[in-house]
Amino acid sequence: MAITRLPSAGFSxxxxxxxxxxASSIGRLTTATGEAGAIVTALDVVDSDPTSVIVDxxxxxxxxxxxxxxxxxxTALEGVDVRKVSDRTFLLHLGGKIEVSPKVALRTxxxxxxxxxxxxxxxxxxIAENPADARRLTIKRNTVAVVSDGSAVLGLGNLGPAASLPxxxxxxxxxxxxxxxxxxxxxxxxxxxxxxxxxxxxxAPAYGGINLEDxxxxxxxxxxxxxxxxxxxPVFHDDQHGTAICVLAALTNALRxxxxxxxxxRVVVSGAGAAGTAIMKLLLRQGVGDIIAYDRQxxxxxxxxxxxxxxxxxxxxTNKENYSGDLPGAVRGADVFIGVxxxxxxxxxxxxxxxxxxxxxxxxxxxxxxxxxxxxKHAAVVATGRSDQPNQINNVLxxxxxxxGMLDAHAEEFTEEMAIAAARAIADVVxxxxxxxxxxxxxxxxxxxxxxxxxxxxAAAQNPAVTPPPAADPGPADLPEIAANASATP
Length: 490
Prior knowledge:
The chain is of the alpha/beta class. Helix content is 38%, strand content 17%. It has helices spanning 25-35, 64-75, 88-93, 109-115, 120-129, 134-137, 161-179, 193-203, 219-230, 238-258, 274-285, 309-317, 327-331, 348-352, 372-375, 399-408, 416-430, 449-462, and strands spanning 8-20, 39-48, 52-61, 81-87, 143-148, 182-187, 209-212, 235-237, 266-270, 290-295, 298-299, 336-339, 359-362, 381-384.
């Protein structure tokens, strides 16, 4: 059975099956599953008797339709009784993925009197007299709001606030797991820029930082800029800056693998939304040779009509030769392709037409811009956003450590110096003696990553002059930017 999408743990199912108790039955199950295009990840015997065996067969499939096809293939086997099919992803989400747990015991009247009334009144009065004490005496010092309006949920589009909640819950769980940061989803039933800014400003006193998530471009640029100006806590749009940090880290090591310098390479970026724009701005500040930005309008170039301000800025500050053709033409002869857009935009032949020792980051999820199996036939280094492929570029490498560092430093803003420091820390965790074409970023489970990123961000917050100055300023300060302060604005 031919499938166009790669099987993924995101579509993992467990099938409870009764089969005859003979030597070939279980082998027939695994063979049929493989022939249906799924990947068997576990097979457990649940029960048995002299005539039958009940097993739980767990496999990764490509999507819900493919899962149905696998079940149908198993059901068609002689003597097989499919009794139940469980979607493991939905099972994991039952009841949500996070909870609130008190840090203090409340076992006696004495403990209650200090944690709540009357003792808590003294703490309230102390904060009223000195508001800065809120960071010391409340959850503020370690708490982040994960804010979304549901207008750009993953690669799925405008699903609204309720449908965005599973993503925000997952983000909060990752904050805690990898950075020790307490984060909470704040999903907003409005997509009005002014209302979002007003709401976040109103809830900000309870938080030490704001993580904006899955807010569509170009509104996300204005929302972030206005909140940074209004608040005295860091505002970080992970779709922009988390992605840009991880891409810069991965590209740093990929260039080490192929022996090229950033200043000498031509980069093509497919997707000029929040992530793509931030990636390009950070690369420009680091002195990249040239970039061609590609989106629904085609290659962004000078003279292209009806561009929004963010795209107009990119058209004026990238694409030195003013290329105006299609995406396959743009990647021809390019050193690097970075995709943060849509699946199946390029073929293996397109990658073959890139420069020698090409680098391909096809980050669309779950299906990349080019099949990584085809890309690896022609490119020297290939990375995706998938956990089942080598070189997974995942924002969890960045945001837990970035916020851990900002919270520890009592930072009031997120800066470009922090972004560069975080990217270098992630790249250096791998170690120059360890990198190779299939290892350009550390594992998301590498326990060294978040502490290294936190330390680098904390140092950048406390001593910003330590970070080498960025390249010459390529654009006006009132357009989408990496940092809040004028000196670090692209």
